[in-house]
C-alpha cells in the first residue's frame, strides 16, 4: 500500500512540474529556483537527524536544512507529499532512518534530479549494531508480526535513542557534509568534534546513573522504542508493545502481567512515551497492590514539531531530560 501511495504522489509531482512550465510566472519561478540552487540542500526525515546536521553546520547560511516530519506525525505512519518528494529529489544530501517505515524512499530517490546526490541510511551506517525487534515476556505480539515472521526479521528503527549510536551517526553525517562543502570542512570538523564531546559527556552521565542506581529494570505501559538505550547500559525492561507497534489497547492479560511485575520488582515508576495518552500506564498502576507509582514520560523524539524546533528544543536537551526521568525510574 505504501508503494502504491508513493507512486501516486510521484505522478502528482510530475503533473505539478508540467503545469509549472506553463505558468505565466515563469521568470519569477526561474529566478527563485536559481537562487535556491546556489545553496547546498540537506533534507532529513526526523528531528534527531535534523538537529545533528544543524549542530555540525553551525551558522553557515549557504546551507538549506529541511526536516520533513515537522508536524508531529509519527515516523511509522508518515507518507511523503509531492512537495516532500520534490525536496528530496533536489537535495544534495538526504538523510533517513532506513527501516520498514521508510519503504517509500526508494521510489522517491528514483526521481532524484541530482547526479551527485549523497544519501545516508542510518541503519546501513550502523551495520551489525542494528537490532531486531524482540518480544519479551508479557509483551503483546501483533498479529501482523506473527503472520510475517517467515518473511525475515524486522529491525528496530529507533537507533537515535542511543547516545553511542548518535556519535557514530554524527560522524557519518559530518563526513558527508565536509565532502559536499570542502571549503568549510575545517569549521564543520571543529563543530563535529565539539558536539561529539557533548554526546560523550552525556553518555558518561548515563553510565554513572545506571551504575549508582539500586534498580536496573524499566517498565513501560506503552510501546517500547528505547531498546538501544537500555542495551547500552545493561538495563532490563518490560513493556506492553514493541517499539514499532501500532497497537494502543493492551489486553487484560498484559495489564495484569505488568502490574504484578511492578509489585514483584518494587518499581515506583511506570513509564510512557510522549505521544501516549497514558491510559495503559494508569491501568497498570490501578492493578498494583499499592497504586502509588509515579507515571513519567520519556521522549522518543518521534513526534517533534516545527514549533518545538523554533523553541530551540535540541537532541541533547531531550536526552538530558530523559536522563532525569531515568534517575527517578531506577530509584
From TrEMBL:
<keyword id="KW-0175">Coiled coil</keyword>
<feature type="coiled-coil region">
    <location>
        <begin position="178"/>
        <end position="212"/>
    </location>
</feature>
<protein>
    <submittedName>
        <fullName>Zinc transport system substrate-binding protein</fullName>
    </submittedName>
</protein>
<feature type="signal peptide">
    <location>
        <begin position="1"/>
        <end position="23"/>
    </location>
</feature>
<comment type="similarity">
    <text>Belongs to the bacterial solute-binding protein 9 family.</text>
</comment>
<feature type="region of interest" description="Disordered">
    <location>
        <begin position="136"/>
        <end position="155"/>
    </location>
</feature>
<dbReference type="InterPro" id="IPR050492">
    <property type="entry name" value="Bact_metal-bind_prot9"/>
</dbReference>
<dbReference type="GO" id="GO:0030001">
    <property type="term" value="P:metal ion transport"/>
</dbReference>
<dbReference type="Pfam" id="PF01297">
    <property type="entry name" value="ZnuA"/>
</dbReference>
<feature type="compositionally biased region" description="Acidic residues">
    <location>
        <begin position="136"/>
        <end position="154"/>
    </location>
</feature>
<keyword id="KW-0732">Signal</keyword>
<dbReference type="InterPro" id="IPR006127">
    <property type="entry name" value="ZnuA-like"/>
</dbReference>
<dbReference type="GO" id="GO:0046872">
    <property type="term" value="F:metal ion binding"/>
</dbReference>
<keyword id="KW-0813">Transport</keyword>
Amino acid at each position: 500500500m505504501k508503494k502504491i501511495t508513493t507512486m501516486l504522489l510521484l505522478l502528482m509531482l510530475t503533473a505539478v512540474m508540467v503545469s509549472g512550465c506553463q505558468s505565466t510566472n515563469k521568470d519569477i519561478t526561474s529566478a527563485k529556483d536559481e537562487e535556491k540552487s546556489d545553496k547546498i540542500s540537506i533534507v532529513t526525515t526526523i528531528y534527531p537527524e535534523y538537529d545533528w546536521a544543524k549542530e555540525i553546520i553551525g551558522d553557515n547560511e549557504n546551507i538549506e536544512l529541511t526536516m520533513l516530519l515537522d508536524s508531529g506525525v509519527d515516523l511509522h505512519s508518515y507518507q511523503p507529499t509531492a512537495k516532500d518528494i520534490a525536496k528530496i529529489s533536489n537535495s544534495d544530501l538526504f538523510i533517513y532512518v532506513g527501516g520498514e517505515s521508510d519503504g517509500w524512499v526508494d521510489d522517491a530517490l528514483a526521481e532524484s534530479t541530482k547526479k551527485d546526490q549523497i544519501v545516508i541510511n542510518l541503519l546501513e551506517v550502523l551495520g551489525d549494531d542494528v537490532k531486531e525487534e524482540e518480544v519479551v515476556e508479557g509483551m503483546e505480539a501483533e498479529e501482523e508480526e506473527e503472520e510475517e515472521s517467515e518473511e525475515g526479521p524486522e529491525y528496530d528503527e529507533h537507533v537515535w535513542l542511543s547516545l553511542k549510536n548518535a556519535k557514530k551517526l554524527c560522524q557519518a553525517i559530518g563526513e558527508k557534509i565536509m565532502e559536499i562543502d570542502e571549503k568549510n570542512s575545517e569549521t564543520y570538523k571543529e563543530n563535529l568534534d565539539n558536539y561529539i564531546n557533548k554526546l560523550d559527556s552525556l553518555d558518561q552521565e548515563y553510565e554513572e546513573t545506571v551504575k549508582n542506581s539500586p534498580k536496573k529494570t524499566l517498565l513501560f505501559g506503552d510501546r517500547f522504542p528505547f531498546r538501544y538505550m537500555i542495551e547500552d547500559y545493561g538495563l532490563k525492561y518490560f513493556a506492553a508493545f514493541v517499539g514499532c507497534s501500532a497497537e494502543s489497547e493492551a489486553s487484560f492479560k498484559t495489564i495484569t502481567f505488568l502490574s504484578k511485575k511492578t509489585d514483584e520488582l518494587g518499581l515506583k515508576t511506570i513509564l510512557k512515551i510522549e505521544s501516549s495518552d497514558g491510559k495503559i500506564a494508569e491501568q497498570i498502576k490501578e492493578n498494583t497492590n499499592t497504586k502509588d507509582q509515579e507515571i513519567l514520560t520519556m521522549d522518543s523524539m518521534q513526534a517533534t514539531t516545527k514549533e518545538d524546533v523554533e523553541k530551540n528544543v535540541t537532541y541533547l536537551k531531550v536526552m538530558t531530560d530523559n536522563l532525569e526521568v531515568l534517575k527517578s525510574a531506577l530509584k
